Amino acid sequence: MINLSREGNVFVLTMNAGENRWNTTFVRSFAAALDEVEASSGAASLVTISASEKFFSNGLDLDWNASRGEHPGGDRKVFGHEFMSLMARMITFPMPTLCAINGHAFGAGLMLALCHDIRFMRSDRGYLCANEIELGMVIPDPELALFRHKLPLNVFFETVQFARRWTGPDALNAGIVEQVAELDALNGATIKHAESLSRLGEKRQVFGQMKERIYGENAAINGLHGPAYMLRNSAEFL
């Protein structure tokens, strides 16, 4: 379901569950891999990839969610909290995080991609899409907040209101991803870039705290005051 390996200073987390749809079992397997990465020391980055040639992650496991009784996907009641908590952990993970989007990333799969610091994407195939509105679902506020933090305003609106499907080149032009590559070069390019950033992962506490200041409680960019006020009254914020 989740495989973890290491290339130099780069931890490579491979999602290996077909379409990599999200259920409680998948969440916990992913979290266990993060535990192992976070327990390490020294220079490090994390890269998330998929073993599928078509899917990065195709969103919520709808069949599991609609099923009744016991299911390999695990406890449905705890999924919402555990999944959202995992996304919060990813967006504040205390080392550089990159993902190689090799195929479709829909719904929860797009959330995962956006929770990484840097995204590379396949140039010739695959879409990024928040398709909740097409499924008759209202996007929860925490997910909207994530999208708003990570996407330019016009891109945010097209993504959440019109369920736009972004190809690799479109996503690059929109500022959603940082680089596109053909499939056979995608993972290698992502890992190479992750290695160049791995020195920043050595100071885990500092790197994680910076992300908390951007995305966490009372985040600096969410404050009531503008930067001019904060600069004039810097003692209030130290």
The number of strands is 9
Order of helices and strands: EEHEEHHEEHEEHHHEHHH
Spatial order of the strands forming the largest sheet = 1-2-3-5-7-9
The CATH superfamily is identified as 2-enoyl-CoA Hydratase, Chain A, domain 1
Largest sheet: 6 strands, mixed
Give the strand content: 15-25%
- Remind me, CATH topology? 2-enoyl-CoA Hydratase, Chain A, domain 1
Parts with pLDDT < 50 across at least 5 consecutive residues: none
Overall mean pLDDT score? 95
Structural domains: how many: 1
> What percentage of residues falls in helices of 4 or more residues?
40-55%
Report on the structure:
- The model has no long low-confidence stretch (mean pLDDT 95).
- The chain has helices spanning 24-38, 62-66, 79-91, 108-114, 141-150, 153-161, 168-174, 183-197, 204-215, 227-232, and strands at residues 2-7, 10-15, 45-50, 55-57, 97-101, 104-106, 118-122, 128-129, 179-181.
- Strand 2, helix 1 (24-38) and strand 3 form a beta-alpha-beta unit.
- It contains ten helices and nine strands.
- The strands form two sheets. The chain has a six-stranded mixed beta sheet with strand order 1-2-3-5-7-9, sandwiched between helices. Strands 4-6-8 form a three-stranded parallel beta sheet.
- The protein is of the alpha/beta class.
- It has a single domain (2-198), classed as 2-enoyl-CoA Hydratase, Chain A, domain 1 (Alpha-Beta Complex), CATH 3.90.226.10.
